[in-house]
Amino acid sequence: MRIDTGLPGGEVSADWAEAEGGDVILIAHGAGSGKDHPFLVGLSAALHDHGLSTLRFNFPYSEAGRRIPGPAAHAIATWQAVTAWAREWRGSGRVIACGKSYGGRMASMAAAEGMPVDGLVYLGYPLHPPGRPDRPRVGHLPAVVPPQLFVEGGNDPFIQPVSQLEEAVASCRDARIAWIEGGGHSFEVKGAKRPAAEIGAALAPLIAEFAASLPGGPR
What we know:
about 220 residues; single chain; Rossmann fold; alpha/beta; eight-stranded mixed sheet; globular
């Protein structure tokens, strides 16, 4: 399927998997990949097994075959368009934004501008560039109203020192951290060789639990 972003580039492709009666999880990719990365495919399939509908989508730069992200405004507009599509389909049901790294950060920026989602999940939030804790990307987080779940690997170079992430989360209105012990930025654990799809699928229970905890209970 394709979703119109309202941008000059037009539509982006998306993959929809419906689960009857479940909440909708919108899934965005990281900066150097696309919606079909095995990590996201495995995550989406596992969430569907938990009774959650999922929509994986591309950002415009990835749709055009580029690996370098375009303007943040384009990613925010895409998030808003995808959320509007899900809201129209789901009616009064809950819609949760979930993004890997860059995709999650763009979701947080869209939510800070009022994107109507019921919750946000960040899979490896890129708090700062590796080795540059002096360049935090957190100024907008206190403006995010919906509950937020930060799923973070303890060895992720994008959040060192971890105390900086903990301080950022403490500044939020409603946020929590789920730690993956020994995990890197893509939740890989040194010495444990697992396929990316399996790593993504392993995070599904955390997201399903978070969705069930949102106001209104499971739907």
